[in-house]
Amino acid sequence: MNPLETPSFPSRLPKVGTTIFTVMSALAAEHKAINLGQGFPDFPCDRKLIAEVNEAMLADRNQYPPMIGIAELRNGISQKIQNLYGHHYDPDTEITITAGGTQGILTAILACVSPGDEVIIIEPAYDSYRPSIELAGGKTIAISLQVIRDEHGQVASYEIPWDALAKAINSKTRLIIINTPHNPTGMVWSKVDLDSLANLVRNTSALILSDEVYEHMVYDAARHHSVASHPELAARSFLVSSFGKTYHVTGWKVGYVAAPPALTKEFRKVHQFNVFTVNTPMQYGLATYLADAEHYLNLPAFYQAKRDFFRAGLGKTKFKLLPTPGTYFQCVDYSALDIPQAKFNEADFCKWLTTEIGVAAIPVSAFYEQATESGVIRFCFAKQDQTLTSALQRLEKI
Q: 64, 127, 298, 373 — which has fewest CB within 10 A?
């Protein structure tokens, strides 16, 4: 072997390459397309939040915080969950501040999944779930949302596949990952859905990881049904949420995980070695900002206005709009468009849309391990009205 060559070694994630989000964002930048693909706002966060973080920095809150997060922020999260969902998490033994929701997900999986354990995910699924399971040595058991089609064969909605989920649960099932509101489809779980899940796991040792980072984006006067609102599920669940999504600061990467003491104890064993602590001044700034509940209680109306504006514009195009009861994503079926490109697979259609029309989207097929084609793509409407208007003007030309 050449001593100047880097030694080879087996990849821990041999099937993982560049994500579709990176590919589409790079393509959008190259072609100066409007990026409605990657899920981040293009408008600023509240200057009050910036001021609170700046004040913490100037007050020399710049050294390591406690490993589990500062008390002020954990107390605020505990109070928020109590007020919204009626469940008390002890801030000292049940709440941990994380470096974003994705780190919380990975840490929870590493904390409870051992080699050979099975983890159930529901596809289309956020792309970090499967690699995290593989890093833990677990086996991913993927079941797919049921696709409901209209009389024209176009996708109309998605439903939870309860029969398939029930059949997938067995003695090897260590964890079931759920996501509500759901990325990428925008569907939300109901109280009846949580009851159904509780019935399935009641006599098992399966744990739940509930990804609720879009918890404050539920529309039309509906409410978010958290696992925290269901005592039986709360007793076996990791609840994951994100300040990045809630306060329009996705680049800050600050979130939290709430779980019963036994789960939190194991979670923190991993957390202290894969990240240890999270940005100190941002924790202080967020703690102060969180104290005003209006900062998250007003979010559904804020994003519903954007959703309605975007849907009204899309209504003038030939795309078929799927329901969007939650998240800041709008899915559309393009399969009936009267253009040759309507026969493209979803990834190729998104590339064509980016390079030729000037609007970037994400194929829903990318959220499956084995690309499952349904003719559906996802737009992000967490954008300024001007951005959405410009995108709509381009989309109307199709």
A: 64
Name the phi and psi angles at 35, rounded to 5: -90, 95
CA dihedral 265, 196, 81, 297 (to 10 degrees): 140
- Per-residue pLDDT tens digits for 70-118: 999 999 999 999 999 999 999 999 999 999 999 999 999 999 999 999 9
- What superfamily does domain 20-45+297-395 belong to in CATH? Aspartate Aminotransferase, domain 1 (3.90.1150.10)
Residues of the chain with CATH 3.40.640.10: 48-295
d(C-alpha 125, C-alpha 135), whole Å: 17
Question: Pick from 141, 183, 175, 176: which is nearest to 158 by CA?
Answer: 183
- State the Cα–Cα distance between residues 266 and 250, nearest whole angstrom: 27
* Each residue's pLDDT tens digit, 277-304: 999 999 999 999 999 999 999 999 999 9
State the DSSP string of 183-206.
TTT-----HHHHHHHHHHHTTS--
> Is the pTM for the entire model greater than 0.90?
yes
**Domain range 48-295, its CATH number among 3.40.50.720, 3.40.640.10, 3.40.50.2000, 3.40.1390.10:** 3.40.640.10
